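re: the backbone from monday

yeah here it is again, tokenized this time
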């Protein structure tokens, strides 16, 4: 039997790792660290640092790095993602069979929280569907959305109003969600907010949240929209990758 712990590690800040995550990390017999290419080497460097700093007995815990399959950029987005998840599940299964053939506890370090726009749980389900006996443990983590609101010193919602969490793709294709007072946007490839009216929407934007290169911008879209697009492009050119998120509102949040 394999126990697979999906461990939410926050946004890369050691201070954001919970005691539950620390316990799960130290209970693991095998920790799998994905490599996402040279351009995103910062991501695996941070995972290595977490293991180095937080493992109490690193000699007895096997740490294995593997190359994460790339997603096909074809037009059929959902189909490409489905194939990508299948490829990742195969790699996970291969690594587990090779390095933990007699069973045990596997730890996967998940950015943010495994429940919010992360597919680790779906990939894990594929392992079970393929006949591998896997017991899943989910350890919640601090999300980039929580860090964004903390760094901007704002609540997530307007008083007694709902919040909708969506993606940049959805925002660009469908516009402002119906009945939403506040909209949190994740997985934006860049500038989806330009599809919205610029005069009556306020934005709180953040990139590399929780990291030493964190960048924050806020203001009315009409005033800071172009600044965010230019700053985002410059940061991506400098670091080779970017993770950002933003909150939009049509009324004050305080």
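seq for it, each position gets an aa:
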């Amino acid at each position: 039997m394999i126990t697979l712990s999906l461990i939410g590690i926050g946004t890369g800040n050691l201070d954001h790792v919970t005691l539950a995550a620390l316990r799960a990390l130290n209970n693991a017999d095998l920790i799998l660290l994905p490599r996402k290419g040279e351009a995103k080497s910062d991501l695996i460097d941070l995972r290595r640092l977490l293991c180095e700093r937080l493992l109490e007995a690193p000699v007895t815990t096997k740490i294995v790095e593997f190359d994460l399959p790339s997603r096909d950029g074809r037009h059929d987005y959902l189909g490409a993602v489905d194939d990508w998840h299948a490829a990742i599940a195969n790699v996970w299964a291969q690594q587990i069979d090779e390095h933990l053939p007699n069973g045990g506890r596997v730890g996967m370090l998940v950015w943010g929280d495994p429940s919010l726009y992360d597919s680790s749980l779906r990939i894990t389900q594929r392992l079970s569907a393929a006949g591998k006996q896997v017991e899943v443990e989910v350890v919640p983590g601090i999300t980039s959305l929580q860090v964004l609101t903390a760094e901007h010193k704002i609540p997530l919602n307007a008083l007694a109003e709902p919040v909708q969490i969506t993606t940049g793709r959805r925002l660009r294709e469908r516009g402002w969600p119906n009945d939403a007072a506040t909209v949190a946007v994740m997985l934006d490839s860049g500038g989806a907010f330009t599809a919205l009216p610029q005069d009556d929407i306020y934005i709180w934007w953040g990139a590399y949240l929780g990291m030493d290169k964190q960048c924050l911008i806020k203001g009315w879209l009409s005033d800071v929209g172009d600044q965010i697009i230019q700053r985002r492009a410059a940061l991506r050119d400098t670091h080779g990758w970017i993770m950002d998120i933003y909150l939009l509102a049509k009324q004050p949040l305080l």
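The helical segments are 19-27, 41-54, 77-99, 120-129, 144-152, 168-174, 221-239. Residues 149 and 156 are 6 Å apart (CA to CA).
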